[in-house]
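Continuing the series of single-chain predictions for the mutant panel. This is the parent chain; the variants come on the following pages.
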Amino acid sequence: MKIKRPVSLIALCFALSLGAQAQIMVGAKVGANINQFSQPGTVFGFTGGAFGKYQVMDFLGVRAELLYNQQGGARQDYWRDYSQVGGTISGISYTNRFVNLHNLEIPVLVELSHPSFSDEVISPRLVLGVGYGLNLGAMETHEKTYYFNEGATQQIMISDERENVASNYKQNMWGFIAGFAIDMKAGEHTCTLEVRYRGAFNQINNFRFGVPAQDGLPGTIGQEGDLYPSTLSINFGMTIFNF
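Parent structure:
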């Protein structure tokens, strides 16, 4: 009994110290993304939403976010073969392809900083975590060239055409997040400038294997292969409520 009492007292003091240091903050953030698939070519996007942060200790915080997040990248040219289908069109080529993915993103992050910065106006911190993205839609911009059976010179090009290609990509997107942030205290609010990278755990291409034209249907030659999205983002956030 004499041994248990000091241990219980230490545990109680530790719990109370955590409770005294713990703080819940809610805020909003916006940012810009530079996106790329696992092949050359980038597209720019927007991110924005809300976050909630629980400050466990001086050097440790846990944050969850709910974001609208644009990802994407460039895709390689591909060809759809209609020679086995019949009709006047022998094939269609798709070039200069850029895809924008519209995702609902839920990151869960751990924030690490040195305790010596806890009372400073400006404090740096390391950000690590994972994210789940739900693909709400995908739009592709490309140039489309129609080739006709009458001859190789018979063709028509349509530029800057937009097409809904949501079915080409998986709906669930898992990734890891690593970054660096600087907090700047302004009264009861905290402003944050953050740079972070999001990599992919799973590939998202629904056409991993090329399909030749057969059975009266066009093929999808050129869209095959694994596809992993990545994002470098620069964000600005501010706490709105403290509890």
